[in-house]
Design a protein that fits this description.
The protein has about 750 residues and is mostly helical. It has 24 helices and no strands.
Amino acid sequence: MATSPCSSSGVSSSSSSGLGADAGLEIRTRSVEQTLVPLVSQITTLINHKDKPKRSDKTLQAIQRVGQAVNLAVGRFVTVGEAIANENHELKEEMSVACIEARRAGETIAQLTDVASLDHPESDSHITIFTDKTGVVKAARLLLSSVTKVLVLADKIVIKQIITSRNKVLATMDQLEKVSSFQEFVQIFSQFGNEMVEFAHLTGDRQNDLKDEKKKARMAASRAVLEKCTMMLLTASKTCLRHPDCESARINKDGVFHRMRLALEQVIEIVTDSRPNGENEMAPISIYSGIKEFKNKVEGLRENLYFLSKENLSTMLEVILEHTEDFTDSAYTSHEHREHILELSKQAKMELEQLVSVWMQAQNQKTKDLMEDLEVAILKTCQCMNDLKREVHSAATSLAADLLKYHTDHMVLKALKITGVEGNFEAVAEYACKLSEQKEQLVEMCRLLRHVSGTEPLEITCIHAEDTFQVTGPQIISAAETLALHPSSKIAKENLDVFCEAWESQLSDMSLLLREINDVFEGRRGEKRVYLSLPRPGKHNANLKALKPVKLDTEEQAKIAKLGLELHLLTSDVDSETEKWEDQENEIVQHGQGMSSMAYSMYLFTRGEGLLKTTQDLFHQAEIFATEGTKLASALHALSDQVHDDKPLLLLEAEKLISMCKQLQITAKASAQGKSATFTKVDACILKTRNVMTLLCQLLPLCCKLLRKNKAGNGCLKPAPPWKEDRIRTGTNARTPERRVDTFGIKSLENHVTNMTFLESK
C-alpha cells in the first residue's frame, strides 16, 4: 500500500524533484491519492522549468499563472478543511495546523513565482523561483505534506461516520433480538431499515474508493451478506414472534443475527485496517499463488545464483504439493485428474532435484556448458509447474461445472418446501440429509476453486461463497423443520422461501464466478477501470470500456448499485401499500402492482440478474413502466370525479405523475451512441423510475384513504377491468411467490408486519 501521494503514475515525476509527502501518512483511498495528482503536476511543472538564460514574457506570465493557480486552489481547499475542522472537534487542532501549513506554503509559492513584472529577476532584490529554487522545493514539499494531512484527516472523518453508522445498526439489532410483540418489532424494524440504508450508502462509497483490491473484495462480500441477511432477519424474526416456543425457529433466527454481526465487524476491520486483539490477517495460500512465487524464484537464478538457498526452494515446492492433496484426497476429484496430479507432483520433485544439482555446480564453476544446463533445468521445472497448474485448474473447474449443472433444478429445495407444508417431518429429515450432502459438495467445490482462482479478489469471493453455503444449508434445514412443525403457518413458509432463495442466488453467483476464473486463466480479463468517489459520482462519461452497449459489466453494476437498491426499497413500500387495499382488483391497485413489478425487474438488471438481459430490454421496460404510470394517472382522474375531499391534491399529484412518465418515455426513447452515452441513459432511466416510484408511494395511501371515506357513503369506486394479457406478457404480476421472496424490504416495513396477524388468521 502506498505511503506517499507520489505512489501513482500521475505523481511519480515529483520524486525526481525531491518532492514527497509525509512518509508516515498512509493513503488508502483512490480519491485522496488522485486529488493530489493535479497539485503535484503543477508544482512539478514549476520546479522542472528550463533555466534558459533568456526568458520570454510568455514564459514569465505562464510561471506566474501556475503559481497563482496553486495558491488559489490551496486557499479554497483550506477553507473546506477549516469548515470540516469546526464540525469535528476531536480532529480540529490537527486539521487546523495542517490547514495553516498548507495556506502558508501556497502563499510562499505564489510569492516565489511572482515574476511576470520583473525584467531581470536575477538582479532584483526580490527572491523568486529563479534565485531560490531550493525555497520552492521546500515550500512544495511542505504544501504536499500538509494537503495530504488534511485529506487523510478528512478520510478519518469518513471512517468515523461508518463506525457511528455501524454502532447504530448494532444497537437496533440488539433491540430487535429482544422484542416480544409484533407492534414493538414494527417500530424498531422500521428504524433498523433506515439505518441499514445509511450504512449501505456509506460502505458502498468506501468500497468503490478503496485502493486495495483485496480489501475491496472483502468489503463487497460483507455488504452482500448484510443485504441478503436483512430479508432473512425480517422473516426469521416474524417466524419467532409467531411461534415463540419453537426451538428450530429460534436457532434459525440466532444464526441470522450472528452472521450479520460478523459481517458488520468485518466491514469495520476493513475501513480501520485493524484486526481484533491485534492479530495479523493470515491469508490462505492457494496453489496458483504458490506456483507463481516458486517460478519467480526459479527464474531469478538466471540473474543471481546466490540470492536464496536450495532449502528455501525445496520448502516452497513442498508447500505447493501439500496443497495439491486437497485435490487428490477429495472424493469429488475424478480418477483421471487425481492420477495426472500425482504424476506431475512426482515429476516436479525430480525436476527440482536436477535443477538443484546443476545450480550447485554452477555456483562453484560458471562454465558455458553448466550455464546452458542450468537454463534447460529452469525451463523444464517451470514447464512442469505450468502443467501442474493447468491440471488442477481443469480438475476444479470441471467439477464446478458438473455440480452447478446438476443442481440447477433445485429439486431438494422444492422437496423440502412440499414436505414442510405437508407436515411430513420424516420426509423433511430425509431431504435435509440430502441438502447437507449437497452443501458438502458445494463447499468442497469452493475450496478447490479458491486454489485456481488466479487473483486475490477472486480467492476472497470463493471463500465468501464457501461460507455462504456452509451457513445457509443448516438455516434452510431449521426453517424447513419449523414449517413441518407448523405446516399451516404462512410466515414459516415465507421464511423457508427466503432462505431457499439465498441458496439459489449463491448458486447463480457461482456460475458467474466460474466464468471469471476461466477468463483469468485464459488471459481474457483486462485491467479494471478505476472508480473514484472524489469528486462525487454522478457523471457517467468517464472512460468506460469500448464494448458493445448490450449489458452492464461488473464495474457499471457496482456504480449503479446504490440507485438500484433505492429502487428495490421503493418496490417494498409500494407492495406494502397495495396489500392494505381490501379490493385487490381495483384498477389503481393493479396498476401500482404492475409498476412495482417492473421497477423490481429494473432493480434486478442493476445486479446483472432477472429477465432484462440487455440495455435495450431495460429501455423497453422503462417505456412500458411509463405507459402503465400514465394509465394509473387516468384512473386517478376518474377517482377525482367521484370524490370531494382532497380532490385538488389528487389532481395535482395525477398531473405530476403524467409529467414524470412523459419525461421517462422521452429518456427511454432517446438515442444513445457508445458505451458512455448508453450507461448515462441507463442511469437516467433508473433515476426517473425511482422518482415515479417515490410519488407512487405517496399516492397509494392517499387513494386508499379516499376509498375508505367514500365506501361508507355509496361506494364511489368502480371495479377494475379484467387483467389484460399484455400486462402478463410484460411481467407485471407483482404477486408471484418468487417476486415476494426476494423483497429486500429494509425501509418502511410497518405494513408488512401489521398485516402478519391478518395473514396468519386466513
